[in-house]
Structure formats: C-alpha cells, structure tokens
Design a protein that fits this description.
heterodimer; A: 182 residues; alpha+beta; Rieske Iron-sulfur Protein; 2 domains; four-stranded antiparallel β-sheet; 3 helices; 22% helix; B: 407 residues; mainly alpha; Cytochrome Bc1 Complex, Chain C; two-stranded antiparallel sheet; 16 helices; 1% strand; globular
C-alpha cells in the first residue's frame, strides 16, 4: 500500500478514518439484532408473567410445588411447631444468616414461599426430608430447615425467595413484589 | 502471476505465527499484493458481492435455525413465531428470504459477465465449471430453504420438483419415494431438507475456496480479454480492488435494504402464507423468480421425460461453454457479432423468466418454445459457428495500452 508521509493530514487520511468510522458503526449496528435475537422472545416473556396461586387447598404441614418462569416454587403451609423451629435458631450460627422474619411476609408467617432450586448446583431438593424438617437435596447432601435456610452440606446460600405478594389471605401472586391491583 | 512473496510481517506475533501457519502470507499474497488487471470494471465486483451474500445467508440462516422447528405440524407456526415473537425475528427472516433473491441476482450478473468477456476460456475452464457447480448447489439450497417454510407453495413446489425424478425410466418412482421418505412429501421430507439446507451452504463455501484458488492460479480475466504482460498492466488488489468491491457491496446493500425494509414480500408468493394443505393444490404453482427461466424451459417441452432432460440440460450445458465457443478472441468488446447474440441471449433469459410466471397456455407456450430453441441454439449452434466465421476487431497490444494509450 502506498503511503504518503507528511505532517499535514491528507484527504486520504480523512477518507480512511471517516469510512472506517462509518464502517465500525455499521458493524456494531449489524451486531445488535444478531445478539438480541437470542434473548427471550415475546412469547417466552409473556409466559413468564406473574401467576396467581390459591392457598386455600393447601393443608397445614403441606408443601406444594408450582412453576413460575420455568422455575419450581415451593409453597410451604407451616405448622406452629415448624414456625417455632424456624424462629428459635441463633441467626448468627447459620451458614447464611437470615432470620425467619426476613423470609416471610408480615402477618403471613405460616406461609414460606421459596424457589425450589438447591443453591449448590441446581437440583430440586426433596420436601420433608433431612434433619431440620425442611428439605434434603439428594445430589450432594445439602439440608435446609423449615425456613428454607441451608444448615448442612455444600450449598452456600439459603433457598432463594421469588418476588411475591399476598392478594388476600388465601391468594398469592408470584412474580410481583407488591400488588398493583388487588 | 506468482512471484516471491513480498510479505514482511511487522509485529513479533505475526512473525511467530508466519513460521508456523503462514496464513498472514497467504492473505497478503491473495488479497493484498495480488496483481490485479488495472482495467477491471464494476462488473468484476460481483464475485466479492457473492462472497458477502454467502456470509449474510449463513449467518442469518444459523440464527434463524435457533428458532425454527423442522417438523411438519410446527414449522409454519415457528416461522410466524420468528416473525412476531423473536427479537428482530422479522428482520432476520426478511434478510434471509430477500438475501436469497439478491444472492441469485448477483450470481446471474456474475455469470453474464463471464459470458460476455470470455472468462470461461482457456485457462479458466475449471474455474468456470466450479462456478456451474456453485450454481447447482445454490439452486438446490434455495429450493430446500423455501420448502422449510411449509406453506402452500413450499409443499407443492416440493411435490412438483421431486416428482420430476419420476420421469426417469424404470427407477424413477423408486427414487422419488426415496427422496420423499414416504408416499408423498411429508414430515420425513421436511426433516431431511432441513439437514441438507444447513449442510449445503458450507459445501458451497468449500467450493468457493476452490473457485478462488482456480482464479488465482490463472489470474483474473479483464475487459480487454488479453493477459497482463508486465507490471504496468496490473495494480495490487489492495487498495484498488478491495475498495471497489467494498463500494459495490455497499451499493448492493442499498438495493438489498430497499427490499428488506420497504417491499419485503414483493418477491415472495402470497400463497406461501397459507399453511401447507396436502389435500389442495393452489391455483398456480410458481417457483421463486430465480428459477423461472428454467421452469419455462421445462414446461415448453410437451413430453415429460424430455422436459426434465431439457431442464437439467439447460444448466449442464453451461459447463461445456469453454469448448462450445470456438473463438480465439475472449472479450465481446472485440467480437461485434457475438455481442449481438449475447444480448439476445440475455433478453431470452429474461423473457423465459417472465414466461415461467405465466400459466402455460396460448401465446405463452408458443413464445416459450421459440425462446427455448434460441437458448439451446445459442450454445450448440451459434457459438461454435461464430468462432469460425466471425470477423473480430483487432486486439490492443496490452492492457495498459487499452487503458492509458487512448486519451
């Protein structure tokens, strides 16, 4: 390629830089749809809308599994004994310190709503198993208590909380942190 | 065309790499320092445009395949889901569908350039034949891609084209059943077309590598049709051809974008927005515009088997062009009589294309037959005779003289 060495920028320099810049902008613009198409499409996003669950059929002591955004959600109707077990624990001794109050909604402490995915490597823990009255994960032995907190085993964090809100005493909406309309 | 490499890698990394895998040197000698005839005109940019379009089709195709479902009950809806739900899905689909049309447009222009300037002549016969192979691969790929939509036109075009093979005496129907994977076009057909449609573009890419290799061995032809004799006749590929190709790619993209954003369905048949119905044939079965000339030739022969033979012959005959044209002069610039027959051929091809879109009745059939006769006569009679009888104009002494000599 012939080069012109001069102190002054030439018209050729200007053309190279201008063309290169426009080309770079064009290349970036081309990349946008190619990358964006891999994001969840409109139908997947629509299927991920909040879901309302009726709590009335869930008996005391029962754990129910529903799906929201393709994730399993455990809804636990805790007995008084299970609530007390969750409260009477030294929070600071827990691997992932969190009080029971931080994991339930005020006035609805008999309801525990957690995402049923083990925080270790993603298996679904088994309900009413393990030494702590909560869940036992068969993959690598993690154990969760009646507040869904990790007590023993390799999992680093407590079972995650989905955004949810009480529409009434017997109905929750999973997917919204507070109800816009009742 | 080849001398010692002038590649001197600047960076330490490139020096290190060059000793182990001399790809820098290869790119340099093929696309930077490569001696290019200085008189190339804009008709020579369509090779680069075709390479660009192949990349566009492969990229948009791979991305579309992330959302497409190749199953007979789900395919049509998956395409509609791409159009409505997938982020920028409408854009990707329209780019891919119109891209196929633009791909063929560029290919036909590229081929006509070759025919006009004698680029198929010695020593470029293999280059030309590789091109014919590329055309066949493109035709197959485009056909199968269209079937994947599984609309009415997809299904019935698949039925018509696969039924062509039933014309083969004896084994015909067996071959057709084998192609279908069933007793009619159906889900097995769709599945295998999807697999092959994904495969063939990469086969095309491989043959393109051979095509460019064959080109670089012989060197490019040029509008004067005479070989470069000295360094005065050539310029380095970069920046001259690189910039010219890039510029024309941009112009081409403007036309491409015009279709994609303003008239994306102009070249598509509305019947393909109707889901495939095996129980009902649409009132007319028409292929995409780029197949119309061959379709017209097929339909102009009243005999089923001979019609199929004519169809395939009309493409295969291109491969024999280097030997059918007996003229020692390459470029039509210096062949005044050939030039006229050439333009008649172009008009014939376009005319056949138009007639392919018309119903096969009345005056359309008559003219199709006349044009089909001209199509084959051009190759089999006119070209061989022209070489013997044509009085050609005197050739310039060199490329440089043809460009610089005349004011």
């Amino acid at each position: 390629m012939t080069t012109v060495s001069s102190a002054e920028p030439t018209r050729r320099d200007f053309l190279y830089i201008a063309t290169g810049t426009v080309g770079a902008i064009g290349a970036a613009a081309t990349l946008v749809p190619l990358l964006a198409q891999m994001n969840p499409d409109a139908s997947t996003v629509a299927a991920g809308a909040p879901v309302d669950i009726d709590l009335a059929p869930i008996a005391e002591g029962q754990i129910v599994k529903v799906f929201w955004r393709s994730k399993p959600i455990f809804i636990f109707h805790r007995t008084k004994k299970e609530i007390d077990e969750a409260k009477n624990v030294d929070v600071n001794s827990l691997p992932d310190p969190e009080s029971d109050a931080e994991r339930t909604k005020p006035g609805h402490e008999q309801w525990l709503v957690v995402i049923g995915i083990c925080t270790h490597l993603g298996c679904i823990p088994l309900a009413h198993q393990g030494e702590y009255g909560g869940w036992f994960c068969p993959c690598h032995g993690s154990q969760y208590d009646t507040a869904g907190r990790i007590r023993k085993g390799p999992a680093p964090r407590n079972l995650a909380l989905p955004p949810y809100t009480f529409l009434s005493d017997t109905k929750i909406r999973i997917g919204e942190e507070s109800a816009k309309t009742a | 065309m080849s001398g010692h490499s002038t590649y001197r890698p600047q960076s330490k990394f490139m020096q290190w790499l060059e000793r182990r895998l001399p790809i820098g040197g290869l790119v340099h000698s093929s696309f930077v320092a490569y001696p290019t005839p200085r008189n190339l005109n804009y008709w020579w940019t369509f090779g680069g445009i075709l390479a660009f379009m192949l990349a566009v089709q492969i990229i948009t195709g791979i991305v579309l395949a992330m959302h497409y479902t190749p199953q007979a009950d789900l395919a049509f809806n998956s395409v509609e889901s791409i159009m409505r739900d997938v982020n920028y899905g409408w854009l990707l689909r329209y780019v891919h569908a119109n891209g196929a049309s633009m791909f063929f447009l560029a290919a036909y222009i590229h081929m006509f350039r070759g025919m006009y300037y004698g680029s198929y002549k010695e020593p470029r016969e293999v280059l030309w034949i590789l091109g014919v192979i590329l055309l066949l691969l493109m035709i197959a790929t485009g056909f199968m891609g269209y079937v994947l939509v599984w609309g009415q036109m997809s299904f019935w075009a698949a039925t018509v084209i696969t039924n062509l093979f039933s014309a083969i005496p004896g084994v015909g129907p067996t071959i057709v059943t084998w192609l279908w994977g069933g007793y009619a076009v159906g889900n097995p057909t769709l599945n295998r077309f999807f697999s092959l449609h994904y495969l063939l573009p990469f086969v095309i890419a491989g043959v393109v590598v051979l095509h460019i290799w064959a080109l670089h061995v012989a060197g490019q032809n040029n509008p004067a049709g005479i070989e470069p004799k000295s360094d005065k006749d050539t310029v380095p590929f970069t920046p001259y051809a690189t910039i010219k190709d890039t510029f024309m790619i941009v112009v081409f993209c403007i036309v491409f974008a015009w279709f994609v954003f303003y008239i994306p369905n102009y070249l598509l048949h509305p019947d393909n927005y109707i889901p495939a119905n095996p129980a009902q044939t649409p009132p007319e079965i028409v292929p995409e515009w780029y197949y119309l000339p061959f379709y017209a030739i097929l339909r102009s022969i009243p005999n089923k088997l001979l019609g199929v033979c004519a169809l395939f012959a009309s493409i295969i005959i291109l491969a024999f062009l280097p030997w059918l044209d007996t003229s020692p002069v390459r470029s039509a610039r210096y062949r005044p009589l050939y030039r006229q027959f050439f333009w008649l051929f172009v008009a014939t091809a376009i005319g056949l294309g138009y007639l392919g879109s018309r119903p096969p009745e009345g005056i359309y059939v008559v003219i199709s037959r006349i044009l089909t006769v001209y199509y084959f006569a051009f190759f089999l009679i006119i070209l061989p005779l022209l070489g013997i009888f044509e009085k050609t104009k005197p050739l310039p002494n060199s490329i440089a003289e043809s460009v610089l000599g005349k004011a």
